[in-house]
Amino acid sequence: MSTASQEDLAKLILRLTIGILILLHGIAKMINGVGPIEGMMVARGLPAFFAWAAYIGEVIAPLLLIFGLYTRLGALLIAVNMVVAIALAHSGQLMQLGGNGGWRLELQGLFLFGSIAVALLGAGRFSIGGRGGSWN
Fold this sequence. Notes:
The chain has 136 residues and is mostly helical. It has one domain (3-121). Helix content is 66%, strand content 0%. The chain is built from five helices and no strands. The protein starts with a helix and ends in a 15-residue tail after the last helix.
């Protein structure tokens, strides 16, 4: 396998991993609603309808990553979603370690920095968008 093919395969694995794992959170929100997020928004003086943006960051954006269509945009949307999630729900845990010694926000950090990596790398050849276009 050529180096270029290995890089494209690595991009596919990263896109699918971040996309599928975030999408599962979005599916849970579709089933259970965004009520808890609305409460966090209101508690911070923000309009409750901002909570609906979670569907963009956790359903639409992951689908863009999975299919490799407007991948960089999808990855940036996930990164923004994760910054908001960390600020709203996890800011008190930023400097904490978990029970096993790892960072308390390992999962959120993986989603945030993994999506930034996808935004920088692009979709690769194994995608609907292929190599063309700056947003793939």
